[in-house]
Amino acid sequence: MQTFRAIDIGWPDSVGIDHGEGWICFQWEDHLYGREGLTIDMYGHCSRNMPFRSGIGLVDYVVHRDSITLRFAPELAKKLELDEEIEIRFDLADSEFEGLKAAMESVGGF
Length: 110
Fold this sequence. Notes:
alpha+beta, 8-stranded mixed beta sheet, 3 helices, 23% helix, 45% strand, globular
């Protein structure tokens, strides 16, 4: 399982979530590119460096207080050039953590 340390996380506000609009973005430092990341839209489309590494597929997740574990279908993991299971660690204030949980619950009707 790959593990990343988020340097930035973004998600839509409650209005965007209610309308099914926006993206959840995780960014981390990368030794080759400086910054790398993963974007998931409200329909479950996942991308890294669009359009080169992207796809729609099964994504399962578990949100912990200090991390999120994402599990991708094998074909999607291959397209994203990620392991089938990754962990992204983060430090968020309580209100930010609740916002991230709400956004993840809205993605693709999980």
